[in-house]
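Narrative of activities, Objective 1.

The group set out to show that a structural description can be obtained from nothing but a protein's sequence at a throughput compatible with the screening campaign. Below is one input-output pair from the validation batch, recorded exactly as produced.
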Amino acid sequence: MQWRRLARFHRETMHGYERRLAAIGGEIRRIRECAGLPQSVAEEAESLVKRYFDTVAGFPPEVVAVAVLWVAAKAAGVPRPLEDFLRCSKAEERRVRRVAWRLKEVMKLDRRPSIEDYVKTLAARVNLPAAVVKSAVELLERNRRVLAGKNPWVSAAAALWLASFKKLGLLKALAEAAGTTTVSIRKAAGRMKV
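Output recorded for this entry:
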């Protein structure tokens, strides 16, 4: 008996998700046609809904559709004023702005640079060779757990300093390039296992 209840719950949950995606997709297509946007913008909007479904789950389909189209149009290089989208929908502007803000915040988190990007940037600023960059990245990979939650600029500078055999003049240049102090870099280097 419990198995049947669980199976029904699973079916209803899956169908609810699919039903919600279909409703949002229908709104996206309708608003896209009304606003005269290219098909690629609608496709990007639908992929945003699927990728960030948990972020937009609690809002009505018309609000979500307007917000994702607005964000997708900006990302695709064909930005439009929000009023163009609101004319084609019964969504409230305040709620659309809230959903769009949430989407942008979640998307920013997805676009954070990797620690390797910090290392390469610092190495370019102080003219270090590719071999030092490679060994610094490998050092950071081995010490990923120790460096979690630490300032990425300081960690990158410490790894570059260790990879270049602790040259004193380089320490000052790295501190300047990373916008930190030599003490911070030394402490971060002390936490790393070489």
